[in-house]
Inverse folding.
């Protein structure tokens, strides 16, 4: 297996050096940037497999960088882990809505960080290798990171895309909100279960144009089920 390339975007030298040292030792190829501007130059130069982005950066916020990377075609599939000292629930949700794949709160141990990195890389690698999936009118093309419906491309946010991809790979099964959080957001992310409802609503809204929202069914008292048979439960 090739070495995964990790870009560290962190302005505080001791923190950046500590992370770089440990990632090197764990066998990763490491690149470093001290602010958003230099991160952009490094990414354009040599696209990494994963970016660690500190929340507080001198020229702009790490959240803004995350959002921008997820918006742009060339970088929208980049795996991103945000580093932050802010532990409030609200900021965690903001980070994930901005498209970060995971979230690590300072202070963290090198061991914890590396296990999070490996988990995110496994998830993003697993998604890339998936074959195109067709369910009813919907066709998910993981290689192109696109959702097609009756020849049109549907626009989905990064979280809705992951959610739909999970549903399409696991049809006809009922999942609780907690199981959905574990599978789509990752086990180490502490967010409220109602966040699942928010993203399910957004997904339904996106699918509604083509009448495919009926595939995403609410199972009262249990959770959600993706059923191409398509009658609302
Ligand atoms: Ca900082």
């Amino acid at each position: 297996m090739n070495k995964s390339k990790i870009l560290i975007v962190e302005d505080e030298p001791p923190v950046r050096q500590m992370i770089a040292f440990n990632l090197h030792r764990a066998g990763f190829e490491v690149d470093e940037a001290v602010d958003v501007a230099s991160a952009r130059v490094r990414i354009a130069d040599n696209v990494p497999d994963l970016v660690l982005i500190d929340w507080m950066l001198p020229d702009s916020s790490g959240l803004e960088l995350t959002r921008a990377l997820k918006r742009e075609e060339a970088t929208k599939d980049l795996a991103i882990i945000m580093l932050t000292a802010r532990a409030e629930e609200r900021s965690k949700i903001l980070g994930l809505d901005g498209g970060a794949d995971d979230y690590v709160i300072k202070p963290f141990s090198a061991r914890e960080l590396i296990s999070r990195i490996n988990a995110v890389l496994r998830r993003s690698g697993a998604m890339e290798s998936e074959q195109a999936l067709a369910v009813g009118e919907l066709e998910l093309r993981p290689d192109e990171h696109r959702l097609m419906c009756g020849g049109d491309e549907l626009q989905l946010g990064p979280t809705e895309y992951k959610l739909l991809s999970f549903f399409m790979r696991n049809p006809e099964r009922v999942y609780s909100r907690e199981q959905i959080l574990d599978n789509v957001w990752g086990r180490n992310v502490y967010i409220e279960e109602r966040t699942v409802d928010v993203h399910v609503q957004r997904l339904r809204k996106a699918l509604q144009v083509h009448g495919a929202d009926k595939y995403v069914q609410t199972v009262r008292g249990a959770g959600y089920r993706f059923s191409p048979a398509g009658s609302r439960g």
The first strand starts at residue 5 and ends at 9.
